[in-house]
Amino acid sequence: MPRPTSEQAAPPIPVQPHRLAQLSSAIALARGWVAGIASLTLAAIATILISVAVAPDLNGLLGAALGLLMLAIALVDARRFIIPNELTIAALVLAVLHALSNEPQPIWGALIFAALRGLALGLIFFAVRETYRWWRGRDGLGLGDVKLAAVAGVWLQWPTIPIAIEIAALAALAFCGGQYLVGGRTVRATSRIPFGLFLAPAIWLAWLIEALLDRF
Question: Which of 62, 69, 70, 84 is CA-nearest to residue 164?
């Protein structure tokens, strides 16, 4: 039998098809993670820069922190259909600091007016939640949405609160319409829609409108 020489090529190593499929899936997953992290990083940087540019003071820093928290809430609610209490509490603490630094009234007056706005909006959302449950026999809004609405009331002034709600509602309707037009998915009364995904960014956008109006 002739011995193989150094010039002879080594026999190819067979690669099983399922190994190739697993490798392709892993590469696609890694690319998705990289793209997602890059998009999230860009969104966070844009949120900070826009907030500070519109309000180059303490208000802008608080607004940037608000934007980052709202971004986190939107992402979590979109993936898990919950709004973590930790993020809501953090946003509430920032809301109190924002009220103290921007309200023309004394400290206690600023806290009382902010608390009244938060209580009023939270009760409205809670009433909507309970009415829908009584009518349909199932939950429409989660308690996380109710708490987030209360935070919005503490953060925003009376004129911009309806703007935030309208932005969130229109964004949710556009999302449902896009699912039907692009993916052919019919949105039914039993379909789950993460409203925090739309309400959270709307709160930051409404704060941005307030900051622009105060500046100009």
Answer: 70
Per residue in 93-139, pLDDT (tens digit) is: 999 999 988 766 678 888 899 999 999 999 999 999 999 898 888 88
DSSP class of 11: P
Dihedral sign (CA 170, 171, 172, 176): positive
Rounded Cα gap, residues 100 and 62, in angstroms = 12
Number of folded domains that form the chain: 1
Whole-structure pTM value: 0.83
Residue 12, domain member (yes or no): no
CA angle 141, 70, 206 (to 5 degrees): 90
Do 144 and 77 contact (CB within 8 A), yes or no? yes
Instruction: Print the domain residue range for 208.
Output: 20-215
42/38 Cα distance (integer angstroms): 6
Q: Can you tell me the distance from the alpha carbon of 65 to that of 51, in angstroms, rounded to the nearest whole number?
A: 9
